């Protein structure tokens, strides 16, 4: 047995899969963004565009945990849903977006402007909600 | 009526597609799951499990889909069913560990991860989550003396609320105004900071220093170092630059009140 979450299925590209890749690609073109991923709430990687050497499985597991903590914390505290979050360290920044489908994550270097990351992520989350939100789950 | 037609009709009535094997149904379920089509994937899994109720793959897919639909109690039950059949199943152990983390049960989370890593030491997701769960235990809490803060120095600016200053062990050093859910908010912010720090560190960036959380009802700004965390809640859509500048002022005042200013 392996530890992989991959159920050994060869997937065929679909318009929906391509649309997710396009949304992610748009995010990774923001200045100083190094890469990103779209991760299901269980940590499964829907699509990713990350620099080589950065372990996608570990990043996905942490992204899903972070996204769920935002969801669970907001619900427990009776606060409104968190749509986007930006986390900055000395040497770089991570931005996360929460959607019905899963969590978007991008990582950027220390020059990534938090306001730009916030705006870009907000737009990407809105694009997913418009196309595949809870009211529109089967489109595409 | 021919037997084939009877089977087809019965299949329609109970929602089964007899022309597909369970393997094919699970394959289709997984493909839909990959594209975030939770409802469609769930239907394929339901049909597959009707044909092969004891399929580990089917049970695991069902668990993943419950997680994707945020139905954590049902997910937990499916992961436990997998473990009942195979006690060291790594994905089931990881799934249950993540749910334990969400429930704030760090001890159960680390126990499950340790079991997974003992059997499968090269398991990146379990390793990452274990690091995130245990990292805080390695950082000693600061020896901050209990002291009375000057209210005028640490007051939420006009239009903001819920100013909270915490130690990394969860001790609330200052809260203004006093709020009923103070301890719950503190615990949530610390869990969030720990996971964010681990994720940033995995990307080679170092621990969390600042955060902005944009919600439907508010925007929360966070400032942190290795031992302290300060948070302040603004109205939704608060301006990034102003929010960060206000946090700088409050952070400097906090360190001064604690006698930690350099």
Question: Which overall shape of chain A is indicated by the principal axes computed on the Cα atoms?
Answer: globular
Average pLDDT of chain B works out at 87
Q: Report the major sheet of chain B.
A: 5 strands, antiparallel
Order of helices and strands of chain B: HHHHHHHHEEHEEEH
SSE arrangement of chain A, N to C: HEEHEEEH
Number of strands of chain A: 5
Class by alpha and beta content of chain A: alpha+beta
Give the C-alpha Rg of chain B. Answer: 24 Å
The chain pair with the largest interface is:
A-B, 67 and 73 residues
Our measurement of the CA-to-CA distance between the termini of chain B, rounded to an integer number of angstroms, reads: 89 Å
Strand content of chain A: 15-25%
The radius of gyration of chain A is: 15 Å
Low-confidence stretches of chain B: none
Question: Would you mind describing this structure in some detail?
Answer:
Chain A has 140 residues and is α+β, with helices and mostly antiparallel strands. Chain A contains three helices and five strands. Chain A has a five-stranded antiparallel beta sheet with strand order 2-1-5-4-3. In chain A, strand 3 and strand 4 (92-98) form a beta hairpin. In chain A, helix 1 runs antiparallel to helix 3. The longest helix of chain A has 21 residues, at 56-76. The model of chain A has no long low-confidence stretch (mean pLDDT 86). The model of chain B has no long low-confidence stretch (mean pLDDT 87). The longest helix of chain B has 21 residues, at 182-202. With 262 residues, chain B is an alpha+beta fold. Chain B has helices at residues 3-13, 22-34, 38-51, 56-68, 72-85, 90-102, 106-119, 124-138, 182-202, 240-257, and strands at residues 161-167, 172-176, 208-215, 219-224, 228-234. Chain B has ten helices and five strands. In chain B, strand 4 (219-224) and strand 5 form a beta hairpin. In chain B, strands 2-1-5-4-3 form a five-stranded antiparallel beta sheet, sandwiched between helices. Chains A and B meet through helix 1, helix 2, strand 3, strand 4 and helix 3 of A and helix 2, helix 3, helix 4, helix 6 and helix 8 of B.
């Amino acid at each position: 047995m392996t530890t992989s979450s991959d159920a050994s299925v060869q997937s065929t590209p679909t318009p929906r899969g391509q649309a997710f890749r396009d949304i992610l690609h748009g995010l990774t073109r923001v200045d100083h963004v190094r890469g990103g991923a779209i991760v299901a709430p269980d940590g499964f990687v829907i699509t990713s565009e990350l620099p080589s050497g950065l372990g996608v499985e570990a990043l996905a597991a942490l992204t899903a945990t972070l996204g769920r903590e935002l969801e669970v914390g907001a619900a427990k505290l009776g606060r409104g849903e968190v749509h986007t979050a930006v986390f900055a360290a000395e040497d770089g920044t991570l931005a996360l977006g929460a959607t019905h489908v899963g969590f978007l994550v991008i990582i950027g270097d220390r020059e990534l402007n938090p306001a730009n990351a916030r705006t870009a992520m907000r737009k990407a989350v809105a694009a997913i909600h418009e196309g595949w939100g809870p009211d529109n789950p089967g489109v595409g | 009526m021919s037997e084939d037609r009877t089977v087809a009709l019965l299949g329609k009535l109970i929602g089964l597609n007899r022309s597909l094997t369970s393997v094919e149904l699970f394959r289709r379920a997984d493909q839909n799951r990959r594209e975030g089509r939770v409802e469609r994937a769930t239907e394929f899994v339901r049909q597959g499990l009707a044909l092969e109720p004891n399929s580990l793959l089917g049970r695991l897919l069902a668990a993943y889909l419950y997680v994707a639909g945020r139905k954590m109690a049902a997910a937990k039950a499916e992961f436990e069913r997998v473990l009942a059949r195979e006690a060291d199943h790594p994905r089931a152990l990881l799934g249950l560990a993540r749910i334990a983390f969400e429930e704030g049960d760090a001890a159960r989370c680390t126990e499950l991860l340790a079991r997974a890593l003992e059997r499968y030491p090269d398991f990146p997701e379990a390793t990452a989550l274990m690091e995130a769960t245990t990292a805080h235990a390695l950082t000693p809490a600061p020896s901050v003396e209990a002291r009375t803060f000057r209210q005028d120095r640490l007051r939420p600016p006009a239009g903001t609320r819920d100013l909270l200053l915490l130690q990394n062990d969860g001790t609330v050093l200052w809260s203004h105004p006093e709020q009923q859910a103070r301890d719950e908010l503190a615990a949530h912010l610390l869990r969030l900071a720990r996971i964010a720090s681990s994720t940033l560190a995995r990307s080679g960036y170092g621990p969390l220093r600042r955060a902005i959380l944009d919600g439907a009802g508010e925007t929360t700004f966070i400032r942190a170092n290795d031992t302290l965390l300060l948070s302040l809640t603004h109205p939704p859509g608060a301006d990034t630059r102003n929010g960060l500048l206000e946090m700088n002022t409050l952070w400097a005042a906090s360190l001064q009140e604690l006698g930690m200013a350099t």
